[in-house]
Give the backbone structure.
Amino acid sequence: MTEQLDTLLNEARRFPPSPEFAARAQATAATYAEARADRLRFWADRAAELEWSTPWHTVLEWDPPHAKWFTGGTLNASVNCLDRHARGAKRNQAALLWEGEPGDRRVITYWELFREVGRAANALRALGVQRGDRVAIYLPMIPEAAIAMLACARIGAIHSVVFGGFSPESLSDRINDSKVKVLITADAGYRRGQVIPLKRNSDKALETTPSIEHVVVVQRRPGSSGDEAFAEMREGRDHWWHRLMQDAPLSCEPETMDAEDVLFILYTSGTTGKPKGIVHTTGGYLTGVAATTRMVFDLKDEDVFWCTADIGWVTGHSYLVYGPLANGATCMMYEGAPDWPEKDRFWDICERHGVTILYTAPTAIRAFMKWGDEYPAKHDLSRLRLLGSVGEPINPEAWMWYREHIGGNRCPIVDTWWQTETGAIVISPLPGITSTKPGSATKALPGHSADLLDSLGKRIDVGGGLLALTKPFPSMLRTIWGDDARYVETYFSKWPGRPDLYFPGDGAKRDSDGYFWILGRVDDVLNVAGHRIGTMEVESALVEHPAVAEAAVVGKSHELKGQAIAAFVTLRDKSKQSPALRDELKEFVAKKIGALARPDDILFSADLPKTRSGKIMRRLLRDIAEGRALGDVTTLADPNVVASLRDQYEDKEG
Ligand code: WT7
């Protein structure tokens, strides 16, 4: 961390907004002043930009660490994203510009989206889905994913989207945790030309999910029996989406929801093996995402906004669906991989659809850099006017490349820091106001308050420390589904006696201009290609394999992914170790959790470095995985263990 700090301290480049951009920007210096003068009033004004059925009576009820926003108010999220626009001048404007990986395309106007969501909502109601029921969505990046989310919102059902790359076991865990009644999936999706058999995965997951009553299947790819993605339909339980839609009426009376009613649950990794069901509510979440989409992305009517994140992650929820649609924006949505069929697919899409705002992840930017400048250079990217980054720290080199090769040295870059838990962007530049520095997410947005503290809660003006969010805000998670104690413990117990301080789990640095430089996780959570994975999750998966006695997982830096997974494994029977078993274990983890959790390195070891009290010293394992000098080894029970591990790691023979 010190090494990182030093390099960042030397970053002297500054990029002030151009006068032309600033002159037309949505957010101005007055926006900060307004929020500083009266924070609650600022958020109430943002909430008032939504359409409410009943006005709220109280802006904030704060009983640390539990907050309620806009109590007494009622609204419906789908009405805010659709009806408002379908009734007015945006009726014929494109809401979604969609492109499938194989090259199929659809344009869906606000009127059409409104109609499709109404139909889908009626179809779900006809299956018995009621207000408060949970619906899981396990779909590829097709318009039906957004339609399904909004259809749930319309009838007050709580959606729980599960990323299509997750394994059957991960899906069934998530279904069981919140007792989901209906699953919406597809026969298949496409990724790098491969067919992903989602219905087959679902059937596997559904062997252990007693709460599921119905399954709705979108037909992405009409197949035939024997086909790898052929969907067997179980009589009574499974229904084709298109059949249900045919019979469903268009118009669906929206459910009137309380501001604090749950809109969705989204699972994310933590420091234990069990993913946390992050709970977001209707009024506060929608206020936060609608306001930040407009402020941070400077959204205008003529924009084409492309957030490349999958709908299975919070970025897809907030900046592909709810935030842009609440603002009546036109969104690009793409199903597949950036290098399919060629490494210029993104730039081809940007050119063809005239994308003006692009929001993507550092891991993707680093891959583009590596593939070469010639791919973006082949395309006319002159429509782009703003670039965004999210998911992990962006290194200054990648930031500069993004600015030059994608942004033509003309587009401001917003490096946005936030989390599944915060629901919306918290720390970010505002284009048109903030002078950016490559690698810094800059400062907290208007209405937010972030600080840097040491472990005792003392403020650090300049230097490194722990990031803290010090004031509640509308889009903040309300609890963890079914486990409020874990909510309190995980997020609000870092600084004893201060249940009002939220700890996001990130370390950061603050420079003399008060800019934040996020350094990454300080807990046992990895950030692999912009996605959080708990070391415990991977360890639990490994020890389920019959050959494994004990496992310790750490992160190591990776050129493209930011972090990669290194696993140290002790076998029950040492003589079984072999390259084949190593591959088998990697595959085992990928099958259990999903391909994103596949370890890059597995090292077999007779012992793991432990303290005398038996705690695994991950710090030393990290040193070994990174090939660094070993830190303090004096508390080790057996110092010989690390020396032999290091030798083995270096020749990777295990
Ligand atoms: C973690 C949250 C926010 C949506 C995508 C990830 C890291 C996120 C940044 C950024 C440095 C970042 C943090 C955070 N992170 N954005 N701009 N700079 N780090 O959501 O899976 O909930 O992960 O991602 O470590 O805690 P998530």
The longest helix spans residues 110-126. The domain at 15-74+282-521 is CATH 3.40.50.12780 (Rossmann fold). The radius of gyration is 24 Å. The CA atoms of residues 132 and 157 lie 5 Å apart.
